[in-house]
Each structure stands twice: as structure tokens, then as C-alpha cells.
Write a structure and sequence with these properties.
4 copies of one chain form a homotetramer. Chain A has 364 residues and is of the alpha/beta class. The first copy, chain A, is built from 11 helices and 14 strands. In chain A, helix 1 packs across helix 11 and helix 6 runs parallel beside helix 8.
Amino acid sequence: MPGELGLLRAGIIGATGVVGQQFMVALQKHPWFEIVALAASERSAGRPYGQAIKDAKTGARRWYADEEPSDKILGIPVELADALEGRCDIIFSAVESDQARELEPRFAKTTPVISTASTFRMEPDTPMIIPGVNNDHVKLLDYQRKNRGWKGFILPQPNCTTIGLATTLKPLYQQFGLKLVIMTSLQALSGAGRSPGVGGMDILDNVIPFIPNEEEKVQRETQKILGAYCGTGVEPARFPVSCTCTRVNVMDGHTEAVFASTEKPVSVEAARRAFAEYDGGLAEAGLPSAPRHSIVVRDEPDRPQPRLDRNAEGGMATVVGRLRPDSALENGIKYVLVSHNTKMGAAKGAVLLAELLAKQGWLG
Amino acid sequence: MPGELGLLRAGIIGATGVVGQQFMVALQKHPWFEIVALAASERSAGRPYGQAIKDAKTGARRWYADEEPSDKILGIPVELADALEGRCDIIFSAVESDQARELEPRFAKTTPVISTASTFRMEPDTPMIIPGVNNDHVKLLDYQRKNRGWKGFILPQPNCTTIGLATTLKPLYQQFGLKLVIMTSLQALSGAGRSPGVGGMDILDNVIPFIPNEEEKVQRETQKILGAYCGTGVEPARFPVSCTCTRVNVMDGHTEAVFASTEKPVSVEAARRAFAEYDGGLAEAGLPSAPRHSIVVRDEPDRPQPRLDRNAEGGMATVVGRLRPDSALENGIKYVLVSHNTKMGAAKGAVLLAELLAKQGWLG
Amino acid sequence: MPGELGLLRAGIIGATGVVGQQFMVALQKHPWFEIVALAASERSAGRPYGQAIKDAKTGARRWYADEEPSDKILGIPVELADALEGRCDIIFSAVESDQARELEPRFAKTTPVISTASTFRMEPDTPMIIPGVNNDHVKLLDYQRKNRGWKGFILPQPNCTTIGLATTLKPLYQQFGLKLVIMTSLQALSGAGRSPGVGGMDILDNVIPFIPNEEEKVQRETQKILGAYCGTGVEPARFPVSCTCTRVNVMDGHTEAVFASTEKPVSVEAARRAFAEYDGGLAEAGLPSAPRHSIVVRDEPDRPQPRLDRNAEGGMATVVGRLRPDSALENGIKYVLVSHNTKMGAAKGAVLLAELLAKQGWLG
Amino acid sequence: MPGELGLLRAGIIGATGVVGQQFMVALQKHPWFEIVALAASERSAGRPYGQAIKDAKTGARRWYADEEPSDKILGIPVELADALEGRCDIIFSAVESDQARELEPRFAKTTPVISTASTFRMEPDTPMIIPGVNNDHVKLLDYQRKNRGWKGFILPQPNCTTIGLATTLKPLYQQFGLKLVIMTSLQALSGAGRSPGVGGMDILDNVIPFIPNEEEKVQRETQKILGAYCGTGVEPARFPVSCTCTRVNVMDGHTEAVFASTEKPVSVEAARRAFAEYDGGLAEAGLPSAPRHSIVVRDEPDRPQPRLDRNAEGGMATVVGRLRPDSALENGIKYVLVSHNTKMGAAKGAVLLAELLAKQGWLG
């Protein structure tokens, strides 16, 4: 049980970026983890964190999370990633995909790595887990370790847009089977990060109907997450998924309009019940960051809305509404969901994943 | 030929609202029509138009169109609707649905009425026409006149969201047949009007995933517009249409993500060609408000965008992009479209319709 | 001492509006007050609160605060205002100005009334208090009671734009004197309420440089608040105040650019110290809603910003930054402030005022 | 007279940036100028313009102006700046300040340069001109040429925020004298450019109350523009100017709240007349880009608004409204202005300047 032997030592790589800072917020008062080391690029290394995030020109502090960083964090020296080897029980990685390809395997030789990068998501020997949706895939980590000769492992976090979709499809898939899923997303600005992110002039009075690689990721990842663990990999779910992903002028919270065709007939009432009663085993696990309900159903006709619903259950639940029959599809059902892309969809979701691993004895 | 016998006399009812004002902008310099009368509610009647739209409290002018009203228009006296009877060659109606039910048939006894209200759209003896898409449905007006004993007629403009969808589906339907259409819209604020319209606090940093009755309208109207004229009505097209309609923080221009399954196999190249070469007979008709192309294809990966593309061809074309195969559907094709909801989608589109009628001799 | 004799019984009139709902949020878990009665217009009266705020057409709940209402509140029956007489220890009034003129004096005969309406702010026998700025003006309530023959009283909350300005001017006025104040505000949407409030189409990609009566209010109220209590009234402060008030596309948090000329020379360092060390006697009073510091100074060059700073100290502090000398004015100093218009600037500020009164024995 | 001897040959340096593209739009159909050469950095040079502005990753065209570039422009090869020497009658420079310091003097040896960079604005031998405000300062170019031994010259365009302020102050200064000017600006996103410009996440639901160096520029430039030409320089105007410059979520159009104290008493009516009748000699000069009126007065209480008024007179006029007495200042007058920062405030204003020079025989 975490905590009994003292706090688990956490390191964060990519610590000066948006996601890195969200890791700090998610960890700075955490009952099980203690941030012991921060790594970033050469430009930042060698200075206390508070100095490293100061804008050279204006002196403004480049801190992007709502919650302020503690004085303790501001004082932690920023190091180069290599310097963290062997000093942590877990590494939270917030680096870009190409850096992840190089850095994460080096750490994984000795240390568990949880990553928000997309690099290893589709590796056959690597699971991709949404806590409360496919916890059982965690067993694949044993095979990954054996296969790669690692003492640690790499466990990637799914794409933020995948998370709300796969979470809500899970109870439908379990109870009714799925034949076809069509989804259009209206994604928040924070999903694109800040450097440079989406320009103010590009999104004002506008929609950008394209997010590079996003649709492919959501389609593949959804099938993998809802697939079946088979000892040496995951057999992807067979139903096809088709997406159009767009960017809208919203700070946080991805909205998704979902149209699904199920194997067995499904009424709106039955689907509503499946959502509302869905229990992926999170609540009883006693994880500090877990929502009480992974899915929250809103019955008002004009919900969910990202500004009103993104923070449901601390931003860790997916909120579902506008549940209607879809007579255009065989056994058709349609709904709208909102999920918080930078909480459950990024660092806080990764910390929840770490809690699940800690609880199951995979760390330390 | 219009203009040969002098300008056609146009009256506008509902003249003080957003759509009424768009009618004025579309007509104030029109080569074929002349605004001869304006009607509004009792509150406004009896004063020159310029006075009627002044805010009593602040004195601010309540004018909502980009183009300014001419001095001539500001001087036209606002009358009650009844006073217009017998004085116009055509009535443009911008009143709400329930008023339309009462007022429009009274005018239609003697005078052609083109209406942006939804009231009569689904009446069996009433056509609903997008110029350049289903011009042939106009013949149903003869049956309507006979059926109702009117000398005039009522011709409703389709819903603004229907227009972009039906326009782009037309060439696909003609060439490949359609089995299924799924659409999610991201609609502009101006579609909701101004009194009260969408509140600034409701839409800032938000998406509203519900527009009352909109989805039903788009589904039914698309089938009617792409249906077959049969002497005493329109046989609706048989392919099912399923929509989710949302509101986003965009001023003008509805964006729609479309997923379609066709009867015959369709490649992206063939669909692109079908869009780009689509000719609904508008160009050669010589109508002043007609776009050169009803559909404009943009090949850049991140287009169409409402702010950049809504004004293509003076806001009278539908802009299509992101054309991709959809492997989740049988003969699947997907794309994104932008169409201008208050130009082609409302008053200016209604004026184009009037031009078509004038050209064909239905007016005056 | 409040709480020793049980909770104080609070009634809210104007309970279905934006400010009324903010009162509920501010009071629903309050340690000293208990909401015992809610009043609204005839349209709402006679139904439980949860029913009264349901949209008749769509069924959507018209609740505007971030924090959700408790089940207890949703069950309280809405009554007509008259029915509250004699049943409350304090009335929080969130009605419009003209209703306030009629209703508030009726209650004041027997009961203390704290009001967000502007109606009585400039009455000579009526104080207008910002807790922590001019607590001493409360003594004028004795004169008001005598003058009007009331057992209760009316105590109006200042305008939300006045509050940030007067709070930050107080320490400058105390230490350096003031000769001239010029201020331009960039005000949030929530200051305009919701019915209809600012339209989404009016504010998107725009600034509205006019807020009816706002400038006059801020100018007069600032002088009254910083004026001197003189037994039968308040002698207004003599320095002139000139404002331009604008509306910007921000949800909450008024930003104000202030230019001041002081009597005595003032350095940036001295002004900074005056702000940072300002203590209006709030902290030691032990009031549940009081900020630790009425004024928070941010030294980063690009602060304060409404989105980042409006919630400082629970939305109850005014955040000051960009402190610079102003060489264009004699003893000139300029700065930017952000204050939360719907927390300290409205209901939560009014509740803080009630706490101050309770602590001093004016209630119950 | 321009045009009589053929079109003047124009080169643009910094051609791939936002301002460079605005130069193209302002020049591509110009009756007097012809774009003959485009220069940009090494990264872009060597390819046709249409290729150079294609995003390498996504293929999207990086074109930022509303009006589309002509095919002719898309085909012009991008060169390095040095290659333009000797081939142009005028160089329009849209490079950053530090590049301007190096490049512009090299061109000026032989060729007139009009620049939007701030580098040379405050040089004593260099005029800074707003056409229609201080045309007479152009004579200083003779001294600049002699002083620096140039055949060409450098003529910098003032800061976009200065232009609206100085234009409206001019008639007040002329007729009433000025003692003091205080101004708060609410500036549009396009003033910050696009690379990276203001982030969408930074400005959504927010105001940024700081624009580096802007306030100093506006203060100094206003005094220089309204100063007196004295043979070898400009004697700056003596009245002090104090500004606070903020960024708001508006695409184009800077709004400024101005408070002024005049030497002689000024009534609102007199000030209104001074604005409305102001004639800086532009109209009669017959310049293609000139507004009919440099200042447009709007009497509605809630104008000017950037979205509604920025395009007055093709974006070349400053729109003034909310004219009121300011009793806090001696002979005080206050008003709000809107001016288009990327039209009159940038490239189109620079082209107007070039037209003035051409008309007066300074080019070719």
C-alpha cells in the first residue's frame, strides 16, 4: 500500500511545458507521491524552477496552470533528463513525441515511465490504459518488460480526445456490442498547448476543422483500448470508428458528438442506465484522484457544455447528455459528451494511472 | 424579363428584425426590385424606419447588418402588415413562425410571398427550393395555387443549416446515390438572431450542443429538397439523415462535418470533381445574386474555416474541404463544409430565389 | 456574536436573477446565516425554487452561478416579496432599481436590508460601505433610522466598478492625498446580467464603449465612499474623478486603468507599499468572507489580468499591478487593477457587509 | 504626376510577414505602383511567393490578409533583400526593428524607403508623418538626405496606436491648444502580428494590460507628430501624454479612451465641429487611398465600436464618439476613438504616405 513505506519519489521530464506544469499541480499535494526531481532542456537546466520559467525579456512567469506552484516546487533545481536516472520510483514524462522516443526507453530500463506522448501508444507490447475502462490491460506490462529486457516499463496515456470517447463507448460495447461509431469533436485550445499553440487571430470568430494526426489517433486508440488483452498484446476491437476533429474557441473541455450503431437493440433508457450505472472498478479502489463516477449523465436538453461541465468530478468524469435514438443507423443511438482534456485527458489522468499502478504494486 | 417593365415592387414584413434588415441590404441597390413598403409590429408602425429602429432608452440605432441602410430606407414609413395588401409584386416575409401562419396566407391570396419562416416548409403542396439545387420543384407552385385558390403563393426558404448540406449532397446523390448521411453542425450566432439571441455569457469559452428543433428540420428538409417533384407534391429522398446541431462562438458561417455513404463506390477524386464541376443551372440564368459556382472546393488541409470562407462568392457559395474516404462506412466519404447562414442561408438566398422566379415569369 | 444564538434568518428578494443566485451561493453554506425565504415576481411565485428556474420551453435549468445550488435551496418555495415581512433577521435585495424603490423601504420599517440596487446609494442619510475601506460610515445608519422612523435600515452595496477603484484609492488618499483621478474601465459581461445582458453577437470581436449611467455612478460613489462621516451624512471627498467605462469580452472581472495625481509626492515604491500594507481592519475582524488582504500587488509586468487574477483571495481582493510614475500629472502615479465584479463586487461583497454588521451587533 | 511616366516600381522587404502581405493587398491593384520585387529571409528566398508561404508540414497557405493575393503575386520569385538594390522607385519595408536598422540605410543610399518599423522614428533628422495631419514635416527629408549623404531617404510610419490619437488631437491642438492628454487603449490582436502573436489561450476571456514599449512609443510619437518643423528637425509638442495600453480580444481596430485638457475653453459642440470639419488637405490632393474625411464623428451613444467602425472610409478614417465634457480637468474634454490598426495604422497608411510623396515629386 502506497504511503506505508513513505512517499513514492516522482520525477517529471519536460517540466517547463504546459503538461509538465499540470503534472506538478496534480502531484504537489499528493498523498502518495513526492516530486523529487524536474528535468527540462539545456536552456532551462541549472536554475531553480522558478527562475527557469521566467520570461527573459519581460520577466513574466510562464506558468500555465490555474493552481499556483508551491514555493517548494519553485525552488527545485531543473536538471537535464539524464541526471534523473536511478533517483525516482516513477517518471512522469511530458516531452514531445520525438524526445520521448529517445528518452523514455532509457529510463524504462530501470524505472516505470508514464507518458503523455503518443510515441509508444501503438506498440504491440505496450498497453494503453484509461483507469476504470480497461484496467486489465495492465498485465501486458509484464510481457513488455520481458520482451524488452526492462526492469521498468513505458505506459502511455491515450490521446485526450480518445479518453471521453472510449470511456462512454465502454458500457455500450459491454452491454450492446458496437457495429459502427462516428464522431465529430469540438476541441479546446488547451489541447494544442502553448508554444505556439493556436493563435488568438486564428481562432477568434472561427473554427479550425483540422488537427494534424488527431483523427487517426482517436480511431486507432479507441479500438485498442476497447480491445482484448491476449498475453502478448491487445486484439483491437473490431467496430470501425470514423472521426472529424475540429478546434473551437474554448479554453478547456473537448465536446464530442457521437453517433453509434450497436449489435443489439438499445433504447435511450437502456443506454442512459448503462452510462449512469457504469462502474469500471475505480470507486472501490480508493485512488485519490479517481472520480466517484467515470460517467455523469445530464438530462437537461442543452447539456453537456464545456464551460459548465468540464470540471465535473474534479475534471475526471466524462459528462454525457443529449441521448437520443438515431433512426438513420441500425440500432442507432446518439449523444454528446464533454471531457476535460487537461485533467482526465492529460496529467491528472496520468497521475490516476500511476495511483492504479501503485495500488496494484507495480511501483517501488 | 425583369426590369423591362420597370422595377418589381417589393414589400418586407418583419422589417425591424435581423432578417428583415438583411432583406433591405440585399434589395436596396437591386437592379430588379425596389422596396416600396415596410411592415412591422404595432410598436414600430407609424414612424419612419430610421426612427422605428432607435432604442428608446439609449438612442442607439438597432441596425444589425454590416452594410449601412440608405437614407431612402431610413425614411420609409413603417406600416402594419395589412396595409401592404395589393401594393407589392412580391412580399419578403421575415416574421416568426406563428405570425407567418397567420399573415402569409392572407398575402398569398393576391401576391407571391417568399418567407424565411419554417411554417409552410413541410406542407405537401408547397415546394422548398434552393436555387441551383432543385429549381424544378418550382412547378409545384401551380398546384399550390390551384389547391388553395390563391393568385399568389407561399415559397419558404429552407433552414440555413439545410442549405449547405443539401447543396453539397446534390452532386453526390446525382452521381453516386446516397444510402446514409450523418452530420454535426457548428453553427454561428447570427443563426439565432438578436432578440434575445445567444447571450454573450452563454457562449464565451463554450459550446451549446442544442438548437431547438434544428436537427429535425435539417433531416426532413434535406430529404424534401433532394426529393422528386411528382405533380401534387414532392416524394422525399429515401436516404436517412442524422444530425447533431451545436452553437459555437462564431459570428456568421455554419460549419458542418458530413459523413456520407453512397450507393455506388466513390473515390475522393470523383467526389472532388462532382463538387467542383457541379452546375445547377444558376450561372447561365443570369441572376444578379447568383454565385458563379454553387460549390467551391478548397484543397488546403485546414479549410474551410467560417471566418475565411463564409464570404466566398459573396456569401452565396458553399465551400467544401477536408474531403477524405470514410472507411467506417460502405462507400464512405467525409468532408467539411462552410456556408453563410445569413447570406445564402437567409435573406440574400431568398432574394436569389425571387430572382429565379422573376426570370421564369412567376412575378408581376 | 453571530452563531451563539443560532443562525441569523436571511431572506432573498429577486431570487431568480443572476445576483439573487449569487446570494444563494454565498449563503448556502454560510456559518452565520441561513436562507429561510426566497421571493421573486408573480411569474415565479408559488413553486419550489427548482421549478421556478426551469425554462418553460426547453426544460433547461436557468442557474447562472458556477457553484451548484443545494437540494435544500431547490426545494424552498418561491414567495411574493410581501410574504417575507417579519420573518427574517436580514433581507438581501437583488431586485432592479425601480422595484427597490418600492420594496426596500417597506422591509426597512422592521428589518435590515442590504441591497445591490443603486436606488438609495446617494441618499444623504444613507451610507454606502465597502468593508475594509470605510467601515466607520456604518454609524450613519443610526441617523437613517431616526430620520425615517425605521427599526431596520437600507444599506446599499456600491457599484461593482466603484469597489475596485475606491479600494485602491483609499491607501493613496490616506497617505498622499488625491488631487485628480482618471479611470478607464474594461468591464466584464457578467456586470450586465443575463436578461437580456450583452448579446453574443454584440460583443464577439468587439468592445462596447458605453455602459448607461455607469460613469456617473463611479464618479459620485467613489467620492462618497472616500468622504467623511459627519453625523447626519457623508461629506464627499473633494478630488474629481473622471471615467470612461467600456464593456469587453470577458466573463468576470473588471479591469481598470487608473491615473492619479496626489497631493504629496509619491514614489512607485511608496505607492506599492501603501497598497501591499493596506489594512482596513478586515483581517482581525474574523469575518468568514473577508480576504486576508483587501489589495494584492502583482509585480509581473503583464498583470493583473482578469482571467488570472479575478479569483485572488476568493474573488474578494482587488489585484493591482503595472504601478508606474505618471510624469504627465503632478505627483502622478498610474496602475491597473482587477476586481471580481460578481464576488466582492456584488453578492459575496454584500454578504461580507452583512457579516460586518452582524459582528458589530446591527442584526438580530 | 504619377502614372504619366508609367507605374512606379515598388519593392517589398519582409514580404512573407503579416505587414508585408498587407502591403501586397494595398498595392496589387494600385493605379500608381507596381510590385516588381519581393524580399524575405533566406528560408523563403529562391522560390515563387506562393511556394514560400506554404506551410512545410501541413501544406496550408500562410496568407493573413482578407483579400486574396493575385496569381501574379503568387508567381513573383522571393529574393534576398540585397538583390533589390537599384531596381525599385520605392521600397516598402515590413521587417522587424533590428533588421530595419541594418537594411533600410543600405537601400536609402539610392532609394526612398517607407518603413513600418520603429527603428528610425525618433531620429532627429527623420520626419514621422501621418498624411493629413503633419504633411509639412516632409520637408525634413531634404535635411535627412543632406545629413546622411543619401539619394533616397527613410520615412517611418508611426505606431498604429499613435495614429488615431494624433489624428484626433490635431484639430483640438490647432484650435484650442493642449495642456494634457491621458489615454487608455484597448488594442486589437492584429497589432501583435502572428509569429507568434497573442496566443488564443492568453486572450480568451481575458485582457492583457501590457504591450511592451507601446506606451513610450505613443507618448513620444504623438509629441513629435504634433511638433513643429524647424529646418533640421522637429520641435516636439510640449503637452504631456500619458498612456496605458492593453490588449483585448478583438481582431482589428484599436479603441482608445482619451481625456484631454485644452489651453482655451472648449465646448462639446466646438470639439465636435473641430473633428467633423477637420481637413488636413488630404481630400483635395487626389490620393487614391485617402479617406474623404480623416475623422468621422458618430453621435450614437454607444459608438465607436471596433467591429462596426474600423472599416469607416476603407479603414482609413479615425472614428470618434462619446464626446463629453470632462469636469475633472481644466477645459476638459473626453472621447473614444477607433482606428484601423492594419489599414490606416500599417501598410495601407504607408501606401497613402507613398502616394503623398509621389504627388509631391519625391519619388522617381
